[in-house]
Specification:
Structural class of chain A: alpha/beta
CATH architecture of one domain in chain B: 3-Layer(aba) Sandwich
CATH architecture of the largest domain in chain A: 3-Layer(aba) Sandwich
Number of helices of chain B: 5
Distance between the termini of chain B: 29 Å
Oligomer: heterodimer
CATH superfamily of one domain in chain B: Glutaconate Coenzyme A-transferase
Number of strands of chain A: 26
Strand order of the largest sheet of chain A: 2-1-5-8-10-11-12-13
Structural class of chain B: alpha/beta
Shape of chain B: globular
Number of domains of chain A: 2
CATH topology of one domain in chain B: Glutaconate Coenzyme A-transferase
CATH class of one domain in chain B: Alpha Beta
Order of helices and strands of chain B: HEHEEEHEEEHEEEEEHE
Distance between the termini of chain A: 78 Å
Number of helices of chain A: 11
Strand content of chain B: 15-25%
């Protein structure tokens, strides 16, 4: 007779070994929801619940906040609340590192059935499990190895409609840990007292046994938040490769523009940059700017820009051309003009994992030419694609060390939406504070979108003589 | 005989004043740059209008006084604003969801050209080769109603109201009312109807400076402010 089976709480704790500092972790209904109640509150990972709680623990409760299952939880310092659309964007836009689900059945190929049971076969009710399965980098199943009557929950082929096809990476049961690999299922850990043969004998799918097979433990890893604070703009942008696509924040004037990071990018001299930004640098040539203000022109004049995607790329006055317009007229840069709302929505979509969308803006105009069109309910639309970037430089007012950002007034503009679109998002702020000093209702950009933080030196002026 | 080109036209603030009359009580309104910006100064007493700006504000107030400018508080034209009660801030995606989702009731825009079928061309002069579209296309397409406020003719005296636009379009068939320094003209998507003329101007004179055929409303009258 093999050893005891793991208690549910220990199955869930085993899943914690898959987490890492700064990981964004989505939890499905059932066992996974218990993880924040079992794991010491370290603030090292971001639990996200469909209820809109981001960064919480179950070790305490504040009497107000709830998780996806409706249980009371407490927000951690640096936690924040989001609406359902933002939750969906976090789940679907590639921002979730690990999803932990409790399927009812899993297969050799990594397919899984979440909610559907024999009794509810006609009732497909996936909740957000499907979003988690398709949007997360790693998907972990936590489930009992066997169902009622000793029936294996691990099968060669699912017998019910699947909620995620081939999406599972790891299966944690009450007797084993099984990895989903290209050739099928690989047994990598067994519960104390359980031999590989014991596990194989109760599994209705072929299992290969890892050469590194070991005993399943529930040691709780200490997870501390990663350090996001960089000493300078140059340090924060040191690894930007030539040819990068870079989102540059800002509306048009000096407000909400990351001048310090822009100067850092200029000083690094990285070439062949493709900028996505509302303007291509007009603050120097506009009534609301000034000739010695820092804008995109410093990168253009340093021959670093090969393309701009913008809604307001050139000077309002043809007789006062910007550096970008002059470079464009010399044939040195490409330009894609995008209506401002379409630009914002393309960024929002890119950040939320939406590949493309239909919009009426631009139909019948130069900017709708050569785009796929479609008539929906008698109205014409053009297809616009979501935008992603390699890096993004944004300007906040304050950030905490976890990367949560607040803005001031109209300087918010493109910042929050751009922050969701890049592989590496760097924020420049006036001040860095400790987690908890920005309230959960106050935070506009949750720290999970922000990778690096720099403080704009107090003596740094947007009007520096450069 | 006096040339029509030299004949006195209405000043810009009167055009703005006439447009202001069109804004419904309680409406959400986005004002473009130029004459449209001036409209907010003339909203009739007792009427409340909420202004939206693409810079990420709802309920924009008056311009900031000199010396009190704040770079974190601007409208879409880059002008500095005062903080007022009930003002709210949001990001660009939300600012444009308001426009594109039909939540802005009226937008007032300037234009290079407007066609007989209400096409709008206001973002690009072909000879420059590049143009700033900004939020114009989103406003033209997404706002529930588009009013154009502009001079009746361009600086060379050429009509800005034309049978068909020759400049790149901003939106098709989106304009429902044109207010110029000579006339108030309704657009129903098929043609133009002259409703009001500037003091001292006859419908025939307005027609002479218009590049599209105007139906003269049976109750055509002088500008009503």
């Amino acid at each position: 007779m093999p050893g005891n089976r793991l208690e549910s709480s220990n199955m869930v704790l085993r899943a914690a070994q898959e987490l890492f500092p700064g990981a964004v972790v989505a939890l499905g209904m059932g066992l996974p929801c218990h993880l924040p109640f079992e794991l010491p509150a370290s603030g090292g990972v971001w639990f996200i619940a469909d209820s809109g709680a981001l960064g919480y623990t179950g070790q305490d409760n504040d009497g107000v906040s709830v998780d996806a299952g409706g249980s009371l939880v407490a927000m951690l310092p640096g936690g924040s609340f989001t609406g359902v659309v933002d939750v969906a964007g976090i789940l679907r836009g590639g921002h979730t590192d690990v999803a932990i689900l409790e399927p009812s059945q899993v297969s050799t190929k990594g397919d899984f059935v979440h909610w559907t049971t024999e009794k509810t076969a006609g009732l497909f009710a996936p909740g957000s499990a499907v979003d988690m399965a398709y949007g997360s980098s790693t998907v972990v199943a936590v489930m009992p190895h066997q169902g009622p009557g000793g029936r294996s929950n691990i099968v060669e082929k699912c017998t019910l409609p699947v909620d995620g096809a081939g999406r599972l990476d790891l299966i944690i049961t009450d007797v084993a840990v099984i990895k989903v690999v290209a050739s099928g299922l690989e047994l990598i850990e067994t519960a104390p007292g359980w031999a590989a043969e014991d596990v194989i004998s109760i599994t209705d799918a072929p299992l290969s046994v890892s050469s590194g097979l070991k005993e399943l433990t529930v040691d709780i890893p200490a997870i501390v938040p990663p350090n996001k604070v960089y000493p300078s703009a140059v340090d924060a942008l040191l690894d930007v490769p030539e040819g990068s696509v870079i989102n540059v924040d800002g509306f048009a004037g000096p407000g909400g523009m990351a001048h310090y990071l822009m100067v850092g990018l200029r000083d690094l001299g990285v070439k062949n940059l493709q900028l996505i930004s509302n303007t291509a640098g007009v603050a120097r040539v506009s009534a609301f700017g000034s000739p010695n203000i820092i804008d995109h022109s410093i990168l253009v004049e340093n021959n670093q820009v090969v393309k701009a995607t913008a809604s307001y790329p050139v000077s309002p006055s043809a007789s006062r051309p910007s550096a970008f317009e002059e470079a464009y007229n010399r044939g040195e840069t490409d330009l894609e003009v995008v209506p401002q709302g379409t630009l914002a929505e393309r960024l929002r979509s890119g950040g939320a994992g939406v590949a493309a969308f239909y919009t009426p803006t631009g139909v019948g105009t130069l900017l709708g030419d050569n785009k796929e069109t479609r008539t929906i309910d008698g109205k014409d639309y053009v297809l616009e694609t979501g935008l992603r970037a390699d890096y993004c430089i944004i300007r906040g007012h304050k950030a905490d060390t976890l990367g949560n950002v607040v803005y001031k007034g109209t300087s918010r503009n493109f910042n929050p939406v751009m922050a969701t679109t890049a592989k590496v998002t760097v924020v420049e702020v006036d001040e860095i504070v400790e987690p908890g000093q920005l309230g959960p209702e106050e935070i506009i950009t949750p720290g999970l979108f922000v990778d690096r933080i720099v403080v704009r030196p107090s003596d740094f002026s947007a009007y520096l003589d450069i | 005989m006096e040339s029509l080109a030299d004949k006195e036209r209405l000043p810009r603030d009167i055009v703005a004043m006439r447009v202001a009359k069109e804004l419904p009580d309680g409406s959400y309104v986005n004002l473009g740059i130029g004459i449209p910006t001036m409209v907010s100064s003339f909203v009739p007493e007792g009427r409340t209008v909420f202004y939206h700006s693409e810079s990420g504000i709802l309920n924009c107030g008056p311009l900031a006084e000199e010396g009190n400018e704040d770079i974190d508080l601007i409208n879409a034209g880059g002008q500095y604003l005062q903080i007022i009660d009930g003002m709210s801030f949001f990001d660009s995606a939300e600012a444009f969801a308001m426009i594109r989702g039909g939540h802005v009731d009226v937008t007032v825009l300037g234009s290079h050209q407007v066609s007989a079928t209400g096409d709008l061309a206001n973002w690009m002069l072909p000879q420059r080769g590049v143009g700033n579209v900004g939020g114009a296309m989103d406003l033209a397409t997404g706002a529930s109603g588009v009013i154009v406020a502009m001079e009746h003719t361009d600086r060379n005296g050429e009509p800005k109201i034309v049978q068909e636009c020759t400049f790149p379009l901003t939106g098709k068939g989106c304009v429902y009312l044109i207010v110029t320094d000579l006339a108030v003209i309704e657009c129903d998507g098929h043609g133009l109807t002259l409703k009001e003329v500037a003091p001292g101007w006859t419908p025939e004179e307005v027609q002479q400076l218009t590049g599209a055929i105007l139906a003269i409303s049976p109750d055509v009258k002088e500008f009503e402010l």
